[in-house]
């Protein structure tokens, strides 16, 4: 017998359709929110959900399926050079936004002529050189002349999508701009200012929808800043949570994607419990299994603990990007389960201010939850991985 080893994607596959499963409800919900373009009504959306639940894949699929009369751009902030180190500025983001907006005009008939200007426009607006010499205007929006003039650069970029729609009413109804990993905006000196800026433009734009999404919890500081009662959008953004696959969905998914892996009914149930229905864990778990066996409950448990490094690979990668402060806070909370602020402060030997900075960072990253005034680590896979590592090695991963 030939033993087949499954090979499901751990990132977002380039062949979206081959691996994309279901999410019909979410796609149709978002379509409904976008359907106002025809009547000049634009909604602003905030897509939330835990790490690895499938937000990015969902929005890429959405983008792919938009009708030809809706333009779309996708910007992953973590892909902007330097973003991970938290040194990125608003200017970089505006510049990258402009780049993806221009890129979206590539295969759009007569809009191609604007796309053709992309390289020269971007060069002139480069945050490095800020050489706005010989600036003119584009679709009637003035191109900034002055060095490091963020205000003018942002007007150009923020007015651009509505202007494109207005100038092409016959065949274009709307422009969708997806901003992924938006929690990284929390690393700006003034995240509120950025959100207020976006809000100040979108409130006068009837054909532009921004979809913000990222790895953050619905209760994080950054969500508060963008859409909380005192946040820039003040609750006017439509918040759409993405949930893990249901038990039935998980079974369907397995049957469709890897029919070669066999389970007993109890094994299947345990598999669902171990992965929580998170597609990222389903995929990484499946990749440790093989087709020559029928997995019962015990084998699933055994495989889970033996292959935890591979199954929790997403967290292994994230762990390596955390600062020592962040790791220490997580380790304290692993030992204590949940702690109030004062108890947390008493366990570290640095200032309240430093602790606040790093707990907020962990909250923005969707790692730390703050419920009923208590801090805790809420991701079961992260917890399992750390606990298991500690048990095996005697210390937490370095
Ligand atoms: N609907 C789906 N069908 C099949 N596979 C999926 C689906 N959604 C997500 N996946 C798989 O799950 C993994 C995680 O998905 P994705 O990167 O979209 O999650 P995310 O919510 O954006 O996570 P993060 O918060 O870390 O950015 C990917 O490997 C992807 O291939
Ligand atoms: Mg994502």
Q: How would you explain this protein's 3D organization?
A:
There is one protein chain. A hairpin with a 2-residue loop joins strand 3 (137-138) and strand 4. The protein is an alpha/beta fold and 398 residues long. It folds into 3 domains: 23-241, P-loop containing nucleotide triphosphate hydrolases (Rossmann fold); 247-311, Orthogonal Bundle (Helicase, Ruva Protein, domain 3), CATH 1.10.8.60; 314-393, Arc Repressor Mutant, subunit A, CATH 1.10.10. It has a 5-stranded parallel sheet, with helices on both faces. A 3-stranded antiparallel sheet has the order 10-12-11. Helix content is 47%, strand content 12%. It has 19 helices and 12 strands. Magnesium ion binds next to helix 3.
What is this entry, summarized?
By secondary structure, this protein is α/β, with parallel strands linked by helices. Helix content is 47%, strand content 12%.
Pick out its properties:
398 residues, Rossmann fold, Helicase, Ruva Protein, domain 3, three-stranded antiparallel β-sheet, 19 helices, binds adenosine-5'-triphosphate
């Amino acid at each position: 017998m030939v033993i087949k080893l499954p090979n499901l994607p751990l990132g977002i596959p380039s062949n979206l359709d081959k691996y994309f499963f279901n999410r019909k409800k979410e796609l149709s919900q978002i379509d409904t929110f976008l359907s106002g373009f025809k009547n000049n009504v634009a909604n602003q959306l905030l897509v939330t959900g835990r790490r690895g639940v499938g937000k990015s894949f969902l929005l890429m699929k959405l983008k792919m399926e938009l009708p030809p009369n809706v333009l779309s751009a996708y910007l992953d902030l973590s892909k902007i050079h330097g973003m991970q180190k938290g040194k990125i500025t608003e200017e970089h983001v505006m510049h990258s936004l402009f780049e993806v907006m221009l890129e979206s005009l590539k295969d759009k008939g007569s809009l191609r002529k604007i796309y053709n200007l992309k390289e020269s426009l971007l060069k002139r607006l480069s945050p490095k050189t800020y050489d706005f010499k010989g600036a003119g205007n584009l679709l009637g929006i003035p191109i900034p002349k002055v060095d490091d003039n963020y205000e003018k650069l942002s007007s150009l970029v923020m007015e651009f999508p509505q202007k494109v729609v207005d100038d092409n009413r016959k065949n274009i109804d709307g422009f969708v701009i997806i901003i992924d990993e938006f929690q990284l905006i929390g690393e700006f000196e003034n995240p509120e200012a950025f959100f207020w800026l976006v809000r100040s433009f979108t409130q006068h734009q009837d054909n532009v929808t921004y979809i913000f999404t990222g790895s953050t919890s619905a209760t994080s500081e950054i969500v508060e800043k963008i859409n909380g009662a005192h946040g820039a959008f003040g609750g006017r953004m439509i918040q759409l949570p993405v949930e893990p696959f249901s038990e039935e969905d998980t079974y369907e998914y397995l049957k469709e994607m890897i029919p070669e892996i066999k389970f007993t009914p109890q094994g299947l149930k345990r598999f669902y419990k171990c992965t929580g229905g998170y597609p990222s864990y389903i995929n990484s778990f499946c990749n440790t299994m093989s087709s020559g066996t029928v997995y019962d409950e015990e084998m699933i448990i055994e495989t889970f603990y033996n292959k935890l490094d591979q199954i929790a690979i997403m967290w292994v990668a994230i762990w390596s990007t955390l600062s020592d402060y962040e790791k220490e806070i997580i380790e304290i909370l692993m030992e204590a389960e949940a702690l109030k602020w004062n108890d947390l402060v008493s366990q570290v030997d640095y200032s309240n201010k430093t602790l606040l900075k790093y707990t907020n960072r962990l909250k923005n990253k969707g790692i730390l939850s703050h419920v009923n005034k208590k801090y805790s680590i809420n991701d079961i896979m992260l917890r399992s991985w750390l606990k298991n590592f500690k048990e095996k090695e005697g210390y937490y991963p370095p």
